[in-house]
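Trying the structure run again after the queue cleared.
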Amino acid sequence: MNKESNERKQPTKPIHGRRRSKMREQVKWCGCMGVRSWKDGFADIFSRELVDGKLRGELYELFEVKNINEFKDELSDIAWGIGRIIGGLRNKEYIRIPGDGIHYKKVVNRINEYGCMRSKRFLTQGKCPMEGDK
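Done. Tokens:
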């Protein structure tokens, strides 16, 4: 019996156990996706002003969840915010980080659907509020 036949051939695995090619797709960001300062990034996570005028950030929303799926969604929103902070520190719009997948998919779907990364409640007459700033 030779040594080669005795060794097991290990299948190669993609990094992190899954294929990342879909995650690296090029997205045509709207005007809202500019480089953000770290201060603005922290404001999004801790005290972003919402439509109803209350100062609330993503971290606050994490404690309002009603089920595990909402919890995962809010954690992903926080991961997205951290990716925005890291991106801003590196003079980029965004840096993908582990845990941001749910929010990233939401943003890409919004851009494909109506051309803006923001929720519909933030649109101006159904369009990206930064459309005139491009």
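The helical segments are 3-6, 38-46, 58-62, 68-89, 101-114. Worth checking whether this holds up in the mutant runs.
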